[in-house]
Amino acid sequence: MEHIRTPKVENVRLVDRISSKKAALGTLYLTATHVIFVENAPDTRKETWILHSQISTIEKQATTATGCPLLIRCKNFQLLQLIIPQERDCHDVYISLIRLARPVKYEELYCFSFNPKLDKEEREQGWMLIDLSEEYKRMGLPDDYWQLSDVNRDYRVCDSYPTELYVPKSATAHIIVGSSKFRSRRRFPALSYYYKDNHASICRSSQPLSGFSARCLEDEQMLQAIRKANPGSDFIYVVDTRPKLNAMANRAAGKGYENEDNYSNIKFQFIGIENIHVMRNSLQKMLEVCELKSPSMSDFLWGLENSGWLRHIKAIMDAGIFIAKAVSEEAASVLVHCSDGWDRTAQVCSVASLLLDPHYRTLKGFMVLIEKDWISFGHKFNHRYGNLDGDPKEISPIIDQFIECVWQLMEQFPCAFEFNERFLIHIQHHIYSCQFGNFLCNSQKERQELKIQERTYSLWAHLWKNRADYMNPLFRADHSQTQGILRLPTTPCNFMYKFWSGMYNRFEKGLQPRQSVTDYLMAVKEETQQLEEELEALEERLEKIQKVQLNRTKVKSKQSEPSKHSGFSTSDNSTANTPQDYSGNMQSFLSRSPSQGDEDSALILTQDNLKSSDPDLSANSDQESGVEDLSCRSPSGGECVPSEDSGKDRDSDEAVFLTA
Amino acid sequence: MEFAELIRTPRVDNVVLHRPFYPAVEGTLCLTGHHLILSSRQDNTEELWLLHSNIDAIDKRFVGPLGTIIIKCKDFRIIQLDIPGMEECLNIASSIEALSTLDSITLMYPFFYRPMFEVIEDGWHSFLPEQEFELYSCSCDEWRLSYVNKEFAVCPSYPPIVIVPKSIDDEALRKVATFRHGGRFPVLSYYHKKNGMVIMRSGQPLTGTNGRRCKEDEKLINATLRAGKRGYIIDTRSLTVAQQARAKGGGFEQEAHYPQWRRIHKSIERYHILQESLIKLVEACNDQTHNMDRWLSKLEASNWLTHIKEILTTACLAAQCIDREGASILIHGTEGTDSTLQVTSLAQIILEPRSRTIRGFEALIEREWLQAGHPFQQRCAQSAYCNSKQKWESPVFLLFLDCVWQILRQFPCSFEFNENFLIMLFEHAYASQFGTFLGNNESERCKLKLQQKTMSLWSWVNRPSELRKFTSPLFEANNLVIWPSVAPQSLHLWEGIFLRWNRSSKYLDEAYEEMVNIIEYNKELQAKLSYKYGFLKPEMHSPCLKFLLLWFL
After folding, report:
1. Which of B9, B55, B346, B495 could tie B91 with a disulfide, CB 3.0–4.6 Å?
2. Does the CA dihedral A173-A175-A178-A184 come out positive or negative?
3. Cα torsion for A501, A504, A507, A512, to the nearest 10°?
4. What keyword terms does UniProt attach to this protein (chain A) (predicted)?
């Protein structure tokens, strides 16, 4: 590749994020798609893979006696600090990565070279896994009130909308086109979700071009049509998800919001979710908190509060809850918009759908939800997640926030979701990885032009293939929590929203719980299944024997030795913290500590003496851990998510304290 | 004293009880000597059965003839009673006030409680020091049991039996006791079988401003070191606080006199600072405003998690010295009855697998808290709602339980007990029908004749029916040292305690139940399978088994 100035640098050190005293010596490779660091340690040869598209920023820091430090921040919240011995090499790596991390053409992205060794048919089938027309059928459409409209065939009306759209039956093409002219980027009101139990619907659009006084008869008719499509209610809610001030400011630019006087029977409601710039800065601030080296509790909580991140999450949730309640309890239809109707609107519609419909809480249903509210309705993935080099002001963690909302709900309703936290994390990873074609481009139209489905693979098929890894063991289709609407408490629960360290600190394994209940239960369930099968086989065998016995024939005892029973026992494959694995380490500590303990400890503990708090303990306490990371058990994980390999290293947690 | 004197109105009808997450209930309120009971008239079931000693504070309000009493409990629950009639309301309020603040311990409920269950094992004898010594140090001949404190004369807050280095005689112990705060001479707290290193604990040395020293003290703690080894003294106070203590006759070990020891100062807060932290935290948790930012800033301002972090960090450091550095340690603060015990007991949770079992944890509480003289009576007299500023209340034990919960959260499969076990211990430390947490030390407990007059908490807990509730289905014995993370990202608010009454736990309880079902079903299948394999054995030809086989199929 012409952009790689130096493909290989030796004697590079990868600094441990938490304990700067610990660094791994190895070789750095630059390839067309990845940055790869391979440790020298002969027994592990641990590899860290970073996709270029995951790189968010690269920072060259001041050269020190040990070399030239290079800080790589990733969009999946991994942070890599490398020390490169020669300034020149560092500069070459830096310049190369700057270019590699900011591709200018879609064709440079990984998905165009990624080949999972599937044939054409398998690829096509993969793309067919999620089918939106099926989804609308599942919602009960078309029916007496809603019909499929071909008004946007060939993207004639709105280029950021899909071609297949559901609109009220009474909305003629004339009304739709008229309405579209009165809406930002011609994003006219269209159906997002239909609650067939009571005919209430969630529709979405962009803001009206109302300015201070403009009106549009067709737009008014359009809203009227939405209201009429729900015979159970004599009004619709119009929810503007922006703060009122922002919406008012838009009026000066000829945009704005619906005037209740002009539209018959609407109830207008502002729900203040901040714009993409506020969200980008908020995430930035929160990540700074996550990056702090040994922060105090106050530093952390204060920084978290100051970032405003959880406040924004709550605002999105509140909007979703409001809409879900309007639909389910008031049986009223809701039209949701923000400015362009592709960020906040997508967040809010999908949260509301998730609360209303258990289908979206299943593995496949969740893929459908993202496909529907995000991909098909023209959420600008390319701009928001910076897949191609572009305006940094367009970047914003909008879908990250939605994914976090789902996690927050999972924490409240542990049995309600078919999928687990890992599923969310892997989706987040792949939104940025550009390894699959699903999230490329800014609209359906662009994807079609690029022939994404013929040239790349679908993430959904990949996730579906590995679905065993993404199952929530607590989910049961017949569980009461699984059914119907998720009802959040009516009392305000600020404490409900928590910092998601599993996402934002996910590469700091030491900060995560050392034993995962989810993984444990998954292993138990897997074993249970095996036991069931074995039991069935055994029963068949016993039945045969019984017959034989009745015929007074002898049975050889040889054949009937219990199969390796202990082979399945939970302790074997689930806890993973067996002392055997560990004794190796244990020995080395023992042989070290008695003789050298004095010196080592004197050094460290004296430092400790000087400061009242122990800066390293948060790192050190990591060491023995007692428990090997359960994620190494997971069969998929690392396979298609190379950077996750970094989490697979079992020995990295070893005594920081002693090697220091 | 007759309780009847305090109860002017024993019974009021048409009282309405309000609790979060429950519909209001109308019923009859009854006051007895130890309980406040409300039973709804409809179906004669009691809706509320509250120990007076669980009441932390009450407020009363009047709107016309309707009086309202708001009862704030030591377990942080807040309930409201609407009582018709001003006089009745005032009577009830004053009775509750009097009954919840009885001066005399012997009037407390444990002295009146008659158990309705069969005692399988008397908890008062479940954890005898001699047995514990056997369990922990049978392999070593460097330690002995000393009965020097038999009459509580040497140290009033120590138990009659303590473990000390074998080479130190009782006479020396008496001398050391005069050099240590409260007579708390260094004793063995924990013996790490893996490498023979130990945790000792004591009160601060009484060096005073003129640097007094005590040869026997130096000899005693040096006797715990093996040849050529050095140890660490962890002072749970900051250096400044420790220096200030000299003015009051206290102090710390001077390097010159303890050349084989390296001193580390940490700063774990004590007394009213912790109490205020608890008050602020509970206030924040009860605050029902919409503003997200206020919640986090209030959580931060309470400093509760800061205390958790500091205590855990110190305990990890202690465990690290023992297990990683192969060095013995001595831990003390001022008295050696609060922060010292937090650190010694948490270090054992980290180091010692047995202390992560139910029985082992009970033994730990018995040894490191009850026998070690943590003044439960003083510390747990009041909780987060009390207005009167008394000097001795402090949620030291609750902080310890919270730290255990933090470790349990990080290692959910390494503990035999679940969160409910910790919550239960918290409740009983503050208000209980059992005598276990009464008194401030063994000496007081002896004088109160608790063993004869009250029931031990362990007698109740250690019955299969109760144990079932407290056993974690996830437990898989883990013989390793477990190192928790003490980074802020890893420390969480203990919702099971602090948000217990402010949020519905329905969905979380259902999840727990589901988890139990998954594991139970697995075990059931395993049992079934091995049972059936039994039929394939040669003995199956015996007619009896054949019969069984036929019957089973």
Report:
1. B9
2. negative
3. 0
4. Coiled coil, Hydrolase, Lipid metabolism
DSSP class per residue in B392-414: S---HHHHHHHHHHHHHHH-TTS
Residues B328/B188, Cβ–Cβ less than 8 Å: no
C-alpha to C-alpha distance for A382 and A388, rounded to whole angstroms: 6
A598 and B316 in contact by Cβ < 8 A? no
Residue type, B17: L
Instruction: Give B166 to chain A, closest Cα distance, Å.
Output: 23
- In angstroms, what CA-CA distances link B533 with B240, B377, B538? 69, 57, 11
Please tell me which residue of chain B has the smallest CA distance to A298.
B300
> Contact, A457 vs A437, CB < 8 A?
yes
Residue B186: closest CA among B136, B242, B137, B148: B148
pLDDT one-digit tens code per residue, A4-44: 888 999 999 998 776 656 789 999 999 999 999 999 988 88
Q: Are A225 and A256 in contact (CB under 8 A)?
A: no
| pLDDT at A495 (0 to 100) | 82
Q: Is A573 on the interface with B (CB under 8 A)?
A: no
Q: How far apart are CA B193 and CA B140, in angstroms?
A: 9
For tokens 């071009």, what's the residue? A209
DSSP B347-361: HHHHH-GGGGSHHHH
Please give the full DSSP string across B517-547, using - where no structure is assigned: HHHHHHHHHHHHHHHHHGGGSGGGGSHHHHH
Q: pLDDT digit string (tens) for A159-188?
A: 999 999 999 999 999 999 999 999 999 999
Distance from CA of A74 to the nearest CA of B (A): 19
CB distance B265–A541 less than 8 Å?
no
Q: In the annotation, is A90 catalytic?
A: no
Task: Answer whether A238's CB lies under 8 Å from A323's CB.
Answer: no
| pLDDT of A556 above 60 | no
Alpha carbons within 13 angstroms on the beta-carbon side of residue A615 total 14
Q: Which residues contact B522 (CB under 8 A, 6 or more apart)?
A: A524, A525, A527, A528, A531, A570
Question: Count of CB atoms within 10 A of residue A512's CB?
Answer: 20
B-chain CB neighbours of A290 within 8 Å are 489
Residue where the block lists tokens 């402010």:
B502
Distances (CA, A) of A210 to A204, A214, A247, A250, A256: 17, 5, 11, 9, 6
* Interchain pair A302, B300: CB under 8 A: yes
DSSP H or E stretch at residue B78: strand B78-84
- Which residue type occupies A340? D
Of chain A, the percentage scoring pLDDT greater than 90 comes to 71
Give the span between the Cα atoms of A413 and A493, in whole angstroms.
Answer: 15
**ipTM of predicted assembly, 2 dp:** 0.93
The answer to whether the CB atoms of A415 and B510 lie below 8 A apart is yes
Distance in Å, alpha carbon of A158 to nearest chain B alpha carbon: 38
Q: Count Cα neighbours of B51 within 13 Å in the Cβ-side half-sphere.
A: 18
C-alpha to C-alpha distances, B318 to B220, B233, B266, B344, B484, nearest whole angstrom: 20, 9, 11, 8, 13
- With beta carbons under 8 A apart, name residues in chain B contacting A314: 292
Give A623's pLDDT tier (boundaries 50, 70, 90). very low
Other Cβ atoms less than 10 A from the Cβ of B472: the count is 23
pLDDT in tens, A356-369: 999 999 999 999 99
How far, in Å, CA of A623 to CA of A649, rounded?
Answer: 13
Bridge-partner residues for B437, per DSSP? Answer: none
* Confidence band of B4 (pLDDT split at 50, 70, 90): confident
Integer CA distances (angstroms), B270 to A373, A565, B75, B319, in order: 54, 53, 21, 22
Closest partner residue to B528 (CB to CB) among A535, A555, A602 is A535
Bridge partners, residue B62, by sequence: B67
